[in-house]
Design brief:
- The chain has 171 residues and is an all-alpha fold.
- Helix content is 64%, strand content 0%.
- It is built from nine helices and no strands.
- It has helices at 2-11, 18-24, 31-38, 48-59, 68-72, 82-94, 103-112, 116-119, 130-170.
- Helix 7 runs parallel beside helix 9 (130-170).
- The termini are far apart.
- The relative contact order is 0.07.
Length: 171
């Protein structure tokens, strides 16, 4: 609400020209608000009322703003993939409207919330940003899953061989 009011005050008489009002709106945005606007599908905004409604529904849903401590409390859950954890982390980051962190600081906070089996292969300061952390952590997760599957297959195969051997002795 406050942003729209300030925007209208800055536009002055131009607020009467709907097309201009819509066209200039992205220039008033920064950070997560600009990212939200840039993520809208082309042609999805038909007029000023539509833009204002979508802006309010996205940013003013009654959800309170989150803080640094809320972001730091986000941890990877049991059974949660790295990709799902990072997405949940990014969603929480998007609710920290007044938090100014570098990409490297965000990566360090997200790193702290990863499972220790994944973290043990890296140091937190190794990452320039969330994208790099995500790629490397997913790669490590896939490697751990492949090793786990190999051990399971070897155990299952070894168990199968023992059962066959026992059946051969009984006959």
């Amino acid at each position: 609400m406050e942003h729209i009011s300030r925007y209208d005050a800055q536009l002055g008489e131009a607020t009467n020209q709907e097309a201009l009002r819509v066209r200039l709106f992205p220039l008033s945005l920064s950070g997560s608000a600009f990212s939200w606007f840039a993520s809208l599908a082309p042609g999805s905004i038909q007029n000023w009322a539509d833009l204002e409604k979508r802006f309010h529904s996205y940013f003013f849903t009654g959800v309170t703003e989150m803080s640094l401590s809320d972001l730091m409390a986000v941890k990877q859950k049991a059974g949660e993939s790295v990709a799902d954890y990072i997405q949940r982390f990014r969603t929480m980051r998007g609710r920290c409207y007044n938090l100014n962190l570098t990409e490297q600081q965000l990566a360090e906070i997200a790193y702290a919330g990863l499972f220790s089996k994944i973290k043990e292969k890296f140091a937190p300061h190794e990452f320039d940003g969330l994208a790099q952390l995500t790629r490397r952590a997913i790669s490590q997760e896939e490697s751990l899953n492949q090793n786990r599957n190999r051990r399971y297959q070897q155990t299952a195969y070894a168990g199968f061989g023992e059962e066959v051997g026992e059946e051969e002795i009984d006959t």
